[in-house]
Each structure stands twice: as C-alpha cells, then as structure tokens.
Specification:
By secondary structure, this protein is mainly alpha-helical. It contains 17 helices and 2 strands. It starts with about 25 loop residues before the first helix and ends in a 6-residue tail after the last helix.
Length: about 475
C-alpha cells in the first residue's frame, strides 16, 4: 500500500533527458492565450446561450472565477516545483504515485480530445475552401459522418507537430504572431457588436434558472449546465505549467504566464459575451456552430463576419499547438518516470522531445481522422476538472506540510482560494452530462488496470 503513495523526488536531469530552456514570460503568456482563446469562445457561447439564455454571461463569470482560483494554485505550485509535467508532477511530488497516475491519465484524456476536436473544427472551416478545387468530400469527414477520413484534420495536426519537433522557441514565436491575429479578430467583433447593444435582449435574464436540470424534452438547462460546458473555453493555461523545464526563469516567468494569460482571457471573454448577448437575442444564435460570425451577419456586417471566419482558420492552430505541446510533455515526463516506456523519454540535439511528440501526433490524428467527437468531447472537461482539483489540493497540502518553503509566487488568501477551486470544480463536474461522468469513470478504471499491470513495477521516480 505504501508504494502506491510514494512521492516523486525532483532531481536534475542528464542532458539527454532534459528539455532546453528557451522560453521567457512573453512566450508563456502567448502560449496560454493561444491555448485558451479558441473554439471555446468562437463556438461555445452559442451552446451556453442555448442552456442559460442571456445568463450565459453569469456562466462565464462562474467558470472564469473557478478557473482563476485554479490558475492561482497552479502559479504557486509551478514556482515551487519548476519541473515539466503540470498537475501530474505536482500530484506525484505531494500526494503520491497512484493519484499522480490518475491525474496524468486524466490529462492525457483532456489534451487528446481537445486537440482532436479543435482539428476537426479547423477542418470544418477549411473543407469548403478545398472542395471547389476538386478535393474529395469523403476525405473531409470521418466514417461516422459518411466519409473515409478527415484528411484536413490530420494535416493540421501534422503541421503543428512538425513545428513542435523543429524547436520549442521557434514554435512559440510563431504562436505569438497567430495569437495577435486572433486578438485583433475578437477586438473587431466587440467594436462592431457593442454599439448594437440592446437591453431588451437581456430580458428575461435567467429563463432556465440557475442549477442544472433536465427538461421534459431531455435537454439540460440552467446557468450551471452552461458553466460546466463553457468551462472548456477557459482552460489552456495549465499547458503553461508543462513548460516549466523549458523556461529560462521559472520562478518569475511561470507565475506571470499563468496568471497573466488567465486574467487577459477572462477580460476578453466578458467583453465578447456582453457584446454578443446584447447585440442579438440569444434565441437567434443559440447552439449555432459559428455564433460570432452569425451575429455579425445578422446586424448587417457580412464583411466583418467573413474576416472573423478567416481569422479563425488562420489562428485556430494556436490552440492545437498549446495542447499538443502540453500533452507531449505529460507523456514525456510519465515516460521519464518509468510509468510509460522509457525509450520515449529522449530529446533531440535541440532539446525537443521528438519521439513523444511524434507518437502523440499520431494518436491524436487517428482520433481526429476517423472518430466522431460530438458528445464525448465533454470528457475533456472531466479530465481537466480532476487535474484542477488535484492542484488546488496540492497547494493546500504544501501550505500545511511546508509552510516556510520558498515560494516565488504566493496565492493570496490561499485557504479560501484553494477551497473555492476544489468545491467549484467538483460542482462543475457533477453539472456535466451523466454519460460524461460514466465515461470518465470507465477511462480511469482502464488506466488503473494499465498502471497495475505495467507502470507500478517500472516506476523509477524514487521516494521522497
């Protein structure tokens, strides 16, 4: 039993197993904003409006507040334990091996589904541009939708993986450029839509109530039902913590990157949500696959709607880059710890984990190319919520276990922030669809079987 809770000792890695330190705080902020701002705000505001009505604004506030608490806990843990691996590494060092495995396994679920979903979403924008030139329609969608394979989705994953394998700094610099394009597009939306604000569009403000409930038709409604899905739009800052070993000054830059990107995105989302709900009745864009572009067309600005759509196609790969980066690092550290095959824990001469990035890209491309991801994509939220709970718990435990340990960043009002983070994430988890909760349980049962058959006997992380 004791071996299940053995804790990881953080040690300096030899050159062939160490990642190159090439990132500074601007790269980290751009990585975080690039990962956070993507399909979530571009599409999920419609899904949220369908579930909460104009009170989707409140759903954004709640999801953002819970994520902000988690981000503060991440910032403290990342500066205390400046090692790659994010919530997996913190759990291993603080809570024990079996808990770390569950969290790492949950993060693999999160990142895989996010990357695959975003790739399929990008393909949805790209496919209409390809088919007029003779590109076969059956190669733009998976078998479940009547096609053979979603080739554009596989292609964009390959491009982003190639960037990551070329070098972390190079991919981070390109990411920063694309993030600027994305921010300009959202700023244009707010500037165009906000003057059309009409208070009548917010009445009634909360037509479906606050708590999640199931209607007679089987639809899930309520502010918290929307918040549990909109939560998808906020996470991504956790990918920054996976870059700890590649940061030049982790004690300073990780906190700036995590908290800075999260605060920037909360401000952006609130502006976009208020502008969207105020400019058009929620019933006209609820559950639309392109709600922001639809709003711009409805208020008579089709040219700006096209600009927004093109900007999404150009800049959406920043989300892929952020999450593919994060997943490859989780895989890398789990392999370095022996929980996965150690042969994968090798880096190139430029300090980039080429093997694990390639493997990650292949697995994600298979999912994106052939599998339907609509209902099961909510599993990404479940995996993330588990990781956020673990990080908040780690922060609270370390405040008791090692109150005088050096902390470059200290979470303000730590007991309150940590408690809100834990309870808020648990409440959001139980606000997810019941089927999602069942799939998450099955995923972790399968993961524990793999751990006991393979990982437990080969773990080499040491005992703290």
């Amino acid at each position: 039993m004791a071996s299940l809770l053995r804790r990881k000792t953080i040690v300096e890695q030899p050159p062939e197993r160490a990642l190159a330190r090439t990132l500074s705080w601007p790269h980290l902020v751009a990585l975080g904003v690039g990962a956070i701002v993507g399909t979530g705000i571009l599409t999920l505001i419609g899904v949220g409006a369908d579930r909460a009505g104009p009170a989707v604004i409140l759903s954004f506030v709640i999801a953002g507040a819970i994520c902000a608490c988690a981000a503060l806990a991440y910032a403290e843990m990342a500066t205390m334990i400046p090692a790659s691996g994010s919530a997996y590494t913190y759990s291993y060092a603080v809570l024990g091996e079996v808990i770390a495995w569950v969290i790492g396994w949950s993060l693999i679920l999160e990142y895989s589904l996010v990357v695959s979903t975003v790739a399929v979403g990008w393909s949805g924008y790209a496919a209409p541009l390809l088919t007029p030139f003779g590109f076969p329609a059956e190669l733009t969608k998976g078998p479940a939708l009547g096609g053979l394979m979603n080739v554009p989705a596989v292609f964009i994953i390959a491009v982003v993986a190639g960037l990551l394998m070329a070098g972390t700094r190079e991919s981070a610099t390109l990411n920063a450029v694309l993030v600027v394009i994305k921010m300009i597009a959202l700023a244009v939306f707010v500037a165009i839509a906000l003057p059309h604000f009409n208070g009548a569009n917010l009445d009634p403000f909360m037509p479906f109530g606050f708590a999640k409930h199931v209607t007679d038709s089987g639809a899930e409604r309520g502010v918290m039902a929307a918040a549990a899905i909109i939560f998808f739009a906020f996470y991504g800052f956790d990918a920054i913590s996976t870059a700890a070993e590649e940061t030049r000054n982790p004690g300073r830059d990780l906190a700036i990157g995590i908290v800075g990107s999260m605060m920037a995105c909360i401000a952006i989302y609130m502006l976009v949500a208020v502008a969207a709900v105020g400019a058009l009745s929620f019933t006209r864009f609820a559950d639309s696959p392109e709600p922001l572009a639809l709003i711009l067309r409805e208020i008579g600005r089709p040219g700006f709607a096209t600009f927004l759509a093109v900007s999404a196609v150009v800049a959406l790969p920043t989300v892929l880059l952020g999450f593919l980066f994060g997943q490859s690092r989780i895989f890398f550290v789990m392999a370095r710890d022996g929980l996965l095959p150690e042969a994968l824990a090798k880096v190139s001469r430029r300090g980039s984990p080429v093997r694990i990035t390639l493997l990650t890209a292949v697995l994600v491309a298979i999912i994106a190319g052939v599998m339907p991801l609509d209902a099961i994509a909510a599993l990404a939220n479940a995996g993330t919520l588990a990781a956020f709970v673990a990080v908040c718990v780690c922060m609270l435990v370390m405040r008791r276990r090692a109150p005088d340990a050096p902390r470059t960043f200290r979470t303000p009002f730590a007991p309150l922030v940590g408690t809100i983070g834990v309870l808020g994430c648990i409440y959001l988890f139980f606000s997810l669809p019941h089927r999602t909760q069942e799939y998450f349980l099955l995923w972790n049962v399968a993961g524990l079987v793999l751990y006991f058959l393979y990982g437990r006997r080969r773990a080499n992380a040491g005992v703290a």
